[in-house]
């Protein structure tokens, strides 16, 4: 783990406009900076960076955060990777908390495996571009397939020489361990002899989202080979089922387009990218996995389009992929491919415009895609199987409006009632463990909690933005932050067995608020933006980013009577207290429904409800709002 001292130094020295300028074309706009959003396609700049607050806000996508958040959102870094990137940029020596011997050995091994893969990648690429054998055999093969120098360089393609142990000898000569070469699958050994595993093959380096090479795909150029493709062995850094070929090159385009195209093979992917469809990745010739789908959903987009081979195995793989994708409540389409074609062979005949035109005309939702293959069957049993499949997919859709439209479409195309499709879909839904039925009471509760959390956020936003501002209460000068914390502590005494904040992160922020106020020191929003819990800093960035505009300035410290601030402070506290008490009244009412409750406890609870209701009515009347009927 990176030490807290180093993390604090990284936050202290990192300047958001300086860091983001490495990735974006920032232009000065008043006290802020502006540019086109890196998250969506747009013509008018909506991405704003606030130097005074050290946060960014994208008004098109709604995303916001600090410098760490940006690196994680836009560049796909982990929290640790973002910290190390900034440490390197600002020449900060990184100190780690003490590792156990076991942890240190594990870290050293991972570093060594990555270094060896980087060495192998450069070795293979040099063979392809600077070696006579590589140019004659592999480079000419790629050129004949229509792949140009630019795509070869971008994806760092390579070639393993038709030499028994050339890579092995060079790697050992550079000091790399034999056992690590074997673990990565670059080298094989038996009876004391070692040889290059990928010899006489075109090499496709497989990068992670950050650009590190985790493994290789290797295609044979001989028809006589037993295996057309070989892959790196599963290792501590390579898990084929979790990686997507081309994700490093495609990540920014997927975010901007809010769409990810998925193909099966390496050359399928290269063809799409070369023709300009850059928001595409490949599964490296294997079936799409749930890990890969969740990775796309969590990091990039909810929208996927499948472009698989047109043969029977490709079509069946498409149907399996569509079901997996929809099970994650994502949107998915399939592009029809002729039976004797794959994306590489098909689009090698096209230019970019022709390819995009073909995709647009043959891009189908899950209903039409299934009917392309099953819709012409007249047998009732075959039709019922298709409806059964579509109804199961329908059961994954949570959006009511979208679900209703698909219901109507299926019913119309198969000439059956919408009710029968709906009934079948509901039966499918009941069988799914992950599908949770939400009652109307649960919905009301969910909506109420959502409203309640907004009052929490408003209160914390006020503390962060104006906690050091002063106001006058009964002609006594007070800091806004002191008043907020003092009032909240009173609530804590009244409800000492309950947390003030339902949200765990907000509760952590509140504890930090108390710590700052009790210390008596001056503080600013940066205390929260640079909080060492990056989840806290991200949430705070989101809370205060609504105040960013091209004319934004930090609030000035008031030391005179300020009626507007007084009203904002009073209203914020009253709303919070009103919703807080309302939630407790709801809980007490539920306790009354317990059949095992004693008469004495029932009386006490009813007395407490009357008292809480009276308090709430008083607060609500001061806010001039209608009291809810409880």
Name its key features:
630 residues, alpha+beta, five-stranded antiparallel beta sheet, five-stranded mixed beta sheet
Description of the molecule:
With 630 residues, this protein is of the alpha+beta class. It has 26 helices and 18 strands. The strands form 5 sheets. It has a 5-stranded antiparallel beta sheet with strand order 1-2-3-4-5. Strands 13-12-14-15-16 form a 5-stranded mixed beta sheet. A 4-stranded antiparallel beta sheet has the order 6-9-10-11. A hairpin with a 4-residue loop joins β3 (47-50) and β4 (55-58). The longest helix has 30 residues, at 101-130. The chain is globular and about 90 Å long.
Topology overview:
Blueprint: H1 4-13, H2 16-20, E1 27-29, E2 32-35, E3 47-50, E4 55-58, E5 64-65, H3 67-74, H4 79-89, H5 101-130, H6 132-144, H7 149-154, E6 158-160, H8 166-173, H9 178-183, E7 187-190, E8 193-196, E9 201-207, E10 213-220, E11 229-231, H10 247-257, E12 260-263, H11 266-274, E13 280-282, H12 290-299, E14 303-306, H13 312-327, E15 331-335, H14 343-347, H15 352-361, E16 363-365, H16 366-374, H17 380-394, H18 400-414, H19 418-430, H20 440-466, E17 470-473, E18 476-479, H21 480-494, H22 504-519, H23 526-529, H24 534-544, H25 563-592, H26 599-623
Helix pairs in contact: 3-4, 5-6, 16-17, 17-18, 17-19, 18-19, 20-22, 20-25, 25-26
What is this entry, summarized?
This protein is of the alpha+beta class and 630 residues long.
């Amino acid at each position: 783990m990176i030490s807290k001292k180093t993390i604090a130094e990284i936050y202290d020295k990192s300047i958001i406009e300086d860091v983001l300028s490495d990735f974006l074309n920032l232009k000065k706009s008043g006290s802020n900076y502006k540019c086109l959003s890196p998250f969506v396609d747009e013509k008018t700049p909506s991405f704003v960076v606030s130097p005074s607050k050290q946060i960014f806000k994208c008004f098109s996508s709604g995303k916001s955060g600090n410098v760490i958040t940006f690196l994680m959102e836009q560049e796909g870094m982990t929290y640790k990777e973002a910290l190390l990137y900034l440490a390197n940029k600002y020449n900060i020596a990184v100190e780690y908390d003490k590792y156990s011997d076991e942890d240190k050995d594990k870290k050293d091994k991972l570093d060594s495996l990555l270094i060896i893969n980087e060495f192998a990648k450069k070795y293979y690429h040099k063979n392809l571009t600077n070696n006579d054998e590589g140019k004659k055999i592999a480079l000419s093969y790629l050129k004949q397939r229509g792949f140009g120098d630019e795509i070869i360089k971008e994806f760092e393609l390579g070639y393993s020489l038709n030499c028994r142990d050339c890579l092995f000898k060079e790697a050992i000569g550079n000091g790399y361990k034999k056992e690590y070469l074997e673990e990565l699958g670059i080298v094989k050994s038996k009876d004391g002899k070692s040889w290059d595993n990928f010899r006489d093959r075109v090499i496709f380096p497989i990068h992670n989202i950050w650009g590190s090479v985790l493994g290789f795909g290797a295609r044979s150029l001989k028809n006589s080979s037993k295996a057309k493709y070989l892959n790196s062995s599963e290792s501590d850094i390579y898990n084929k089922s979790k990686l997507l070929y081309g994700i490093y090159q495609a990540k920014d385009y997927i975010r901007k387009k809010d769409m990810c195209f998925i193909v099966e093979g390496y050359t399928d992917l290269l063809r799409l990218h070369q023709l300009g469809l850059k928001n595409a990745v490949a599964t490296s010739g294997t079936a799409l996995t749930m890990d890969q789908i969740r990775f796309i959903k969590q990091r990039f987009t909810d929208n996927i389009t499948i472009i698989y081979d047109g043969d029977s195995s490709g079509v069946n793989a498409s149907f399996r992929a569509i079901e997996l994708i929809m099970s994650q409540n994502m949107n998915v389409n399939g592009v029809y491919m002729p039976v004797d074609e794959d994306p590489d062979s098909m689009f090698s005949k096209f230019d970019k415009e022709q390819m995009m035109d073909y995709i647009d005309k043959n891009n189908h939702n899950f209903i039409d895609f299934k009917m392309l293959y099953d819709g012409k069957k007249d047998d009732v049993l075959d039709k019922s199987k298709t409806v059964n499949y579509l109804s199961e997919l329908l059961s994954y859709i949570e959006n009511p409006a979208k679900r209703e439209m698909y219901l109507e479409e299926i019913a119309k195309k198969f000439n059956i009632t919408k009710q029968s499709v709906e009934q079948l879909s509901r039966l499918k839904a009941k069988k799914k463990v992950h599908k949770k039925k939400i009652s109307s009471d649960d919905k009301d509760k969910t909506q109420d909690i959502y409203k309640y959390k907004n009052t929490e956020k408003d209160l914390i936003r006020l503390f962060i933005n104006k906690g050091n501002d002063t106001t006058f209460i009964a002609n006594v000068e007070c800091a806004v932050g002191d008043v907020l914390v003092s009032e909240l502590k009173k609530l804590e005494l009244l409800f000492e067995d309950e947390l003030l904040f339902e949200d765990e992160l907000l509760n952590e922020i509140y504890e930090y608020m108390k710590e700052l106020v009790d210390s008596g020191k001056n503080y600013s929003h940066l205390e929260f933006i640079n909080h060492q819990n990056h989840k806290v800093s991200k949430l705070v960035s989101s809370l205060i980013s609504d105040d960013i505009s091209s004319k934004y300035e930090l609030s000035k410290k008031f030391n005179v009577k300020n009626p507007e601030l007084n009203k904002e402070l009073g209203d914020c506290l009253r709303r919070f207290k009103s919703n807080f008490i309302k939630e407790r009244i709801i809980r007490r009412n539920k306790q009354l429904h317990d059949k095992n409750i004693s008469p004495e406890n029932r009386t006490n609870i009813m007395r407490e409800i009357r008292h809480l209701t009276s308090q709430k009515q008083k607060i609500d009347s001061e806010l001039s709002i209608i009291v809810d009927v409880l």
